[in-house]
Design brief:
Low-confidence stretches: none
Structural class: mainly beta
Order of helices and strands: EEEEE
Strand order of the largest sheet: 1-2-3-5-4
């Protein structure tokens, strides 16, 4: 990976695993509002490729940016950090 550009890596929770080889990951981040200083939560949904259908709802996973795999899929599953209980 040293000869390639660095790829974005994000971690989030799987919110849907209904589709074949595809998961929906919700990424949540907190930041301070620039004008008012209040802590704000922001959520974003990513569609990721899961080649082996390993991830389930509620799992904490790590996804990596990749080439476009379909109309909406731009991420792929790299690691399952923690399984859901």
């Amino acid at each position: 990976m040293s000869e390639r550009a660095k790829r974005k890596i994000r971690s989030g929770i799987v919110t849907s695993d209904m589709r074949d080889k595809t998961i929906t990951v919700t990424i949540e981040r907190t930041f301070r509002h620039s004008l008012y200083g209040r802590v704000v939560k922001s959520k974003k949904k990513l569609i990721a490729h899961d080649e082996k259908n390993e991830a389930n709802n509620g799992d904490l996973v790590e996804v990596m940016e990749t080439r476009p795999l379909s109309k909406t899929k731009r991420w792929r599953l790299t690691n399952i950090i923690e399984r859901a209980k």
